[in-house]
Structure formats: structure tokens, C-alpha cells
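This entry is retained here.
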Amino acid sequence: MNKNYGSQSMIAPLRRVLVKRPDQSFAGADPTRWNYTAQPDLEIAQQEHDALVALLRQAGAEVAYHDEAQPDRADAIFAFDPALVTDRGAIMLSMGKDLRRGEEAAMARCFEAMGVPIHYTLHGKALAEGGDLLWVDHDTLAVGLGFRTNAEGLRQLEEALSGQGVTVIPVELPYYTGPQACLHLLSLISIVDHKLAVVYPSLLSVPFWQYLQEQGFRFIEVPPEEFETMGPNVLALAPGQCVMLEGNPITQQRLAEAGCEVLTYKGNEISLKAEGGATCLTRPILRGE
């Protein structure tokens, strides 16, 4: 594996990660237009983001900032979504949310400056967002099919990963609250340790749940009241070490009982108002033993 990039895992130790600090584009978001619950407070949002970055650094990750200004792209702080980083370089995705179009090219420029090659760029009618892409293991990518990722996006991801020995598994997502809301595959599941996943089973595809069971996964179930506060959105910093949004005590306790070390961050502005948890706020560039 190249020493600078390669992240075909949700749990291998996080070595290098890209983030985007909240700026005026985020703070100025019209809640109705962006489907936020309220207008973010920039000063508090930056404090929350800085504290999350401090946790990443304490875990041993090198944190890089995506500094290019993106006027009127409030969701750009959710750096997870515009790309997927494989052992052969970045796959630039194609946002399913119209308001986020253009984030992909800006991130591609950032990657080039960081020395991360662009392996493939989705094109034409393909749609795919990072939040729908889950590495079950190094050679298996689950792809959520919903309002943000379509069948052509799935096909092009298969094309991009061909020759790398990666199996792509489609996972159908439910309608839930409709096209305006953000329901990604990773809204429903996070892998936090070897064969251990945090899940919200009520909305998870039955065939996918059965597949994971067959693979030997154990499940930590998120209660309904903590689904709304992003209980399933947990970022693994290393196997069994993870960070999640504070205010999810039942899920946090269940993770601890399963043997995980759980860190929490405050995210009233950067998460609760804007529909994005710890995973969404980070784009892993390198994970490795």
C-alpha cells in the first residue's frame, strides 16, 4: 500500500484524514433550503469542529484541511461524501444532492495538492455519495441505493474497482422521510471493530442484515430515540476505538459493554443542526495497521 493514501476499511487505524472547518458558507445556510433544523452559529461550530479534530489528532491521525472556499456550499463541511479513497487513489463521486454539486471538483484539486492521485471520476448520469459507501472489509464495498446514489453510480463504482478484487454489494435503502432528507446507508450502520457493527435495524435492508449475519457480524442496536441524534453514526479511529456524537448514552453504553473505547464530541451546531455525524465530517485518506 502507498504510504500516503488507501482507505479500504472502516476500522483500520486512521492515519491521515481530510476535514473542512466550518466557514461562512456553513454559517450562512438557509435552514429551509439546506434542510437544517436551525441556523448554525459559526463561532460555536468552529469550536466544536476544533474539538473533534483534537480527538482525531490524539488518536494519532494526521489531519489535513480542505481550505478552498466554496461559497454557498454549506454541506462542504461533510468531507466524507465527495470521494472514496482506494489503494489505487481517489474515486471522485457525483453528488445526489443538487446543492452539493461542485464539491467533487474542489476536493479533487485538494487531493492533487496532497499527492493523492485521481483513479476514476464518476460521469454522465451516475450519482453516488460517500455516505452510501461502506467497506464491509478490504475487498467488499456495500453501496446504498437511494435518493443520493443510483444504479448508474453503482455500475461505475464497479467499473472503477474492477481489477482490484473488490466485490460490490448493492443495498436498497427505504424511502423513510423522502428525497429532501439525508438518509445514507451510513445513517443506519457503522462498523466499529472486527465483525462488530452499530445498526439501526428498523430501516436496514433484510438481505443485507442477513448477509452481515452470515459473515459473522455481531450487532449493537441503536434505540429509536437515539436514531434521531445520529446514534448509528460512529467513526472508528482504530478497531474497537471510536468517536460518536454526545447525547446517545444507551448506544454509548452498549458500545462500551461490547468492549469498545468510546470518545464523544459535542456537535450541536456541526451535527444536530445539519444532519451529519463524526463519519460525515471526516474523509479518511489513509488507514493502515
